[in-house]
Amino acid sequence: MMSCRPPPRRPSRRDRNKKGPLPPWRSLSQTWRQQYIDLGHCRISRCTRRLIDASDDERDELRSMDISFVALSITAAASTSGRVRAAKECDLMEYIRAVMEYGLSVNDDHHGDSAVELAAYHGLSHALIMLLDEGCPLRKVTSQRNAIHAAVRNGQHAALEIILSRRGSEARQVVQGEEMGGGGLLFTSLIMEVIAKGDAVSAQLLLANGCASMSDMDAKCIHKRRLHKKLETLLHALYPSIHDVMHWRGRLHWSFPKTDRNTLNWLWHILQRPSNTEVLPAEMWLRVFRFFGRGWFACRRYSSIGSSGGDVLQRNIIEPTT
Fold first, then answer.
1. pLDDT, position 18
2. In the 3-class helix/strand/coil scheme, how is 278-311 assigned residue by residue?
3. pLDDT(145) > 90
4. In sequence order, what are the beta bridge partners of 114?
5. Could you read off the pLDDT of 147-194 as tens digits, one per residue?
6. Could you give the residue ranges of the DSSP H alpha helices within the chain?
């Protein structure tokens, strides 16, 4: 028997006439509205000339709204391919130089993504280097995402290597912020992105620069999304000489949740006291540690953790003793 479903409701005239907030560029003068339109058609060189020929008052209008259209120009250049892309990248570099010369905001946003994030996502290495040399942060205060995550998400290993080689310390701070829950509730962490994609090259780059670590929330996501096999495959690609990668080894310490790492560090510190060295030698304790699996100390009962982004059994976290 066929089910009788009502036809989909057409939007009323009132619904069609509803208007959301206007984008920032719509409130600009006609000169800069045309700039937005031309960049949408990838006319970057024409936009560079318009920016150079503009008056001081017109450029002050962009400064007052923190807009330079650099992020949009990066998106426009990335939309091309082949020889055209190479020519558009040269035009993009000229546009960024003009923006920097007139003191405009070089790291503006386009649809919530900063210019640095877009350059990393699309693998525009020369533009990325120029923006990093200008001092643009890997993560803007107003954004939940960052340039490291953007490069990993699109598999741009060259861009990731540029970021880690030029901003290694800042990259580690960004990753630590993710581990502390700074990414937001709907944010997929960096290590989860690597595991889901099975990206061993990105994992090796992150490990070499101290930017790979797993949080308790990541352990929960692996359990909920059933990513154990993908994690095992990734670890086997990174450590082919280790047969059992799902239990603790010294080289796998980074891949354990934060609570597990802190607890094992605390246990190792206690066992190294002079009064405890006579119980078992250090080599034997390391063999005992090899029986530990991920989540033994962090969150054994995932149903009791609570909603996503909640307090992940903070009572179990034991900070390492210094």
1. 53
2. CCCCHHHHHHHHCCCECCCCCCCCHHHCCCCCCC
3. no
4. 109
5. 999 999 999 999 999 999 999 999 999 988 876 654 444 457 899 999
6. 13-16, 30-40, 44-53, 56-64, 70-78, 82-101, 115-122, 125-133, 147-153, 157-166, 168-179, 190-197, 200-208, 216-224, 228-238, 258-271, 282-289
Backbone φ/ψ region at 55: left (φ over 0), alpha (ψ -120 to 50), beta: beta
pLDDT tens column, 130-144 = 999 999 999 988 777
Nearest CA-CA partner of 251 in 260, 243, 242: 242
User: For tokens 């953790």, what's the residue?
Assistant: 305
Instruction: For residue 211, give both structure tokens.
Output: 């930017």
Residues 316, 130: Cα–Cα separation, whole Å: 45
**Average pLDDT over every residue of 86-91:** 94
Residue type, position 228, single letter: H
Tokens of 60: 């002050």
Angle (CA) 58 64 69, round 5°: 70
Tokens 């307090």 identify what position? 311
Length of the chain: 322
- For Cα atoms 198, 201, 203, give the angle at the middle one, nearest 5 degrees: 70
Q: Which amino acid is at 124?
A: L
Distance in angstroms (rounded) separating the CA atoms of residues 122 and 128? 10
Q: In terms of DSSP bridges, do strands 113-114 and 109-110 run parallel, antiparallel, or are they unpaired?
A: antiparallel
pLDDT tens per residue, range 237-294 = 999 999 999 999 999 999 999 888 888 888 888 777 776 656 677 788 888 889 988 8
* Nearest alpha carbon to residue 211 among 174, 251, 239, 253: 174
